[in-house]
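The authors assume throughout that readers already know how a fold can be written as discrete tokens. For illustration, here is how one protein appears when written out as sequence plus structure tokens:
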Amino acid sequence: MEVIGCCCLRDCRFFMIAVVSVMVMVSLSGVTAILDPIDFLALQAIRKSLDDMPGSEFFSAWDFTGDPCDFPGVFCVRDHVVALALGDPRAGAPGLNGRLDPALGRLSALAELSLVPGRVTGPIPDALSSCSELRFLVLSNNLLSGPVPTSLAGLPHLRTLDLGYNQLTGSIPASIASSPKLSNLILCHNQLSGSLPPFPTSSPLLHLNLKHNQLSGPVPPLPPSLQYLSLGSNALNGRVDTVLRRLIRLNFLDLSSNFLYGSIPGVVFGFPLAALHLQRNAFSGPVEPSQDDVVIPVVDLSYNRLWGAVPPQLASVSRLYLNNNRFTGDVPNRLVQGLNNGMQLLYLQHNFLTGIEIGTATAALPAGTALCLHYNCMVPPIDTPCPLKAGSQRMRPLDQCPDLRV
């Protein structure tokens, strides 16, 4: 057998690609495949850097003597890989371990890259910025570490970036917030720190989930296109009333467990929300919805510093948490009636409420309905089970109730 020598690395590379071209064009079955040789070599490198976790057989069919376009998770158009779904997508299936190889960046036509939940470690390759056609990048629920690559902002077609549930550190690159086509940014459940980057008003962003990180500082102006906003469980501070007023398209809002303060704008209660989570902050002032009937299914304003009367406009809310605030006066009759008209939960414990009218129809609450009135400036007229955090005291000490009517 004749051995062919290479005078330089460049010649060796061209020779290797030529050999791979022959390998890809001729299969054992005689079927002609046309996968680009650079893509072929990239898939080989990707395979070497990843393994099946016990119980997974995802890579068992990756036999490079055949056509890689027939591999599970590999999708081709003509001679290029355009989508790569790494791992068994079935619910509960074991994922992969190993690392992401920079060879991913050599898949020049790649538009979609996803990785199933598993134990893949190491950094996100900067080389992904070479995939200029990439629109969909989902690497969530693994053990990826290091920073969010700033280079990802250079992907002109990127629409979805989901790196949630990993161990990423550092700040969120401001350039990513300015990506011209980014509509879904999900970086939740990491260890990201620093401030939120500013988002252009013209951004097409629809879904922003940065929950459970270590982000701090104020909430900057956000694009009015947003429909889903989750910033809970960070260390954000400052007022948000001006920011929120512009987000009239929101259908989900979670700012819980931060250090936000100021008033809650009444217009928020008129947004088409499925859930409103503002609990565990330092919001203060009265709650004054701007419309007569709030129809948000879940409203949680607990553990704040809200005061004044309990708003009767919240009677149509299905699950209403107003506990651990500073509300005073009587519980509105409209809320009491709501307990018999579909309201499932009404938590009013740990306030300064002084009365509630319980009629004969309400004395026996419907099955599955939860009402808690503990630790107010009144003795609850009916005995209902409360959560353990409400404590065992049914009424506040009298010296804490200057408005109590004797």
In short: Confidence is low (pLDDT under 50) at residues 1-32. Helices lie at 9-25, 37-49, 174-177, 241-245, 333-338, 360-363.
